[in-house]
Q: What sequence folds into this?
């Protein structure tokens, strides 16, 4: 009897120790998560706060002011760079979204010669370093005797954006219910009508997600743009880089804060659109 009691007491102590150890582990994991968020987001918060600093020096706070936002909107060179960035981002996003969706459908639904090799080639822009792809694209433009301009930047951005769009759309196609397309065709719809009224609405959340990703990558790309941009084709990242070389000013903090706001707005818009388009398949049909 005493042996049974001692074993029970020993098991109880082990259980309490395990419980305390588990509690400390959970606390350490929570603390590491908190410190991780602080490490990641503190510089962003400081950047946004100091964009409202009235001082010319980012190291000293002199008071709250919208001075640098007024300077930013009056900067003609910055406005031209923003216009170029939007032209490149919208153009490359539109082209890469169309072709990326087509590639995803072809890779997911059809079998053809060289499919494995093409699949590996599709993931290449995601895997290889940006500097390697930038050099390859520059050599391509030089060998094809094509001048560097906004058009060359758009072509370069399409070259790597197609892969990202295709990956996102293919992920949406994995759980796609083909019986809905078969039901539409049984009811008299042809292939074009089936695609337009059934397939496309069901794929729209994935297409929008891929388009958002492509737009974001195109808007803030620096390395590939730096190698493929010509005279008069300065985009916003290139303009910011040229300003940073002369010293960091609150104007750079202001444009960075606006880019952060734009990115957050695009993410929220994408989530809203995906929620509206992410109903049940029965509702969409």
A:
């Amino acid at each position: 009897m005493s042996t049974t009691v001692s074993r029970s007491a020993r098991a109880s102590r082990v259980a309490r120790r395990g419980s305390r150890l588990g509690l400390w582990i959970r606390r350490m994991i929570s603390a590491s998560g908190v410190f991780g968020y602080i490490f990641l987001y503190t510089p962003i918060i400081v950047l946004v706060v100091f964009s409202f600093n009235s001082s010319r020096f980012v190291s000293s706070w002199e008071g709250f002011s919208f001075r640098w936002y007024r300077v930013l909107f009056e900067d003609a060179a910055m406005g031209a760079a923003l216009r170029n960035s939007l032209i490149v981002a919208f153009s490359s996003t539109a082209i890469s979204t169309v072709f990326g969706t087509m590639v995803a459908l072809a890779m997911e639904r059809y079998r053809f010669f060289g499919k494995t090799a093409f699949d590996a080639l599709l993931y290449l822009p995601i895997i290889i370093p940006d500097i390697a792809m930038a050099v390859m694209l520059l050599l391509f433009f030089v060998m094809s005797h094509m001048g560097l301009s906004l058009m060359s930047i758009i072509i370069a951005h399409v070259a790597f954006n197609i892969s990202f769009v295709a990956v996102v759309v293919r992920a949406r196609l994995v759980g796609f219910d083909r019986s809905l397309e078969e039901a539409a065709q049984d009811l008299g719809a042809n292939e074009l009508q089936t695609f337009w009224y059934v397939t496309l609405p069901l794929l729209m959340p994935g297409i929008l997600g891929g388009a958002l990703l492509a737009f974001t990558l195109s808007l803030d790309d620096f390395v590939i743009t730096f190698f493929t941009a010509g005279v008069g084709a300065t985009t916003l990242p290139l303009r910011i880089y040229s300003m940073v070389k002369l010293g960091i000013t609150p104007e750079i903090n202001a444009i960075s804060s606006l880019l952060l706001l734009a990115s957050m707005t695009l993410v929220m818009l994408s989530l809203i659109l995906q929620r509206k388009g992410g109903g049940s398949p029965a509702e969409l049909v």
Observations:
- The CA atoms of residues 243 and 252 lie 8 Å apart.
- Residues 2-50 form the longest helix (49 residues).
- The chain has two domains: 1-50, 72-284.
